Amino acid sequence: KLSEAKVDFSGIVKEVLDCEFEQKLYEFGIVPGATVYVIKAAPFKGPLYVKVEDSLLAIRRSEAAFILVN
Asked: Among 51, 62, 70, which residue's Cα sits nearest to residue 19?
């Protein structure tokens, strides 16, 4: 799960699990096969700052839990 990734993690999105914001994640470019790189993690279980292809995003850890990476 992307929510468990540490800073400097790089991986490929394997699957986006079924959730109410799945379409939003797809619109941001978080699709199976996309490369994600964790740039920064906010303290106290705050959001993850990730680079997806050419975009920079802040993703809540609760949302990142629906993104499976390898």
From this structure: 62
Q: Which tokens hold the place of 55?
A: 């975009």
8 A C-beta contact, residue 55 and residue 28: yes
Structure tokens at 38: 């964790």
Q: Write down the pLDDT at residue 53.
A: 87
What would the pLDDT profile of 47-65 be if each residue is shown by its tens digit? 999 999 889 999 999 999 9
* Residue 32 structure tokens: 């199976």
User: Residue 44, Cα to own-chain centre: how many angstroms?
Assistant: 18
Q: How far apart are CA 26 and CA 41, in angstroms?
A: 21
Distances (CA, A) of 56 to 18, 29, 39, 40, 53: 23, 10, 9, 11, 8
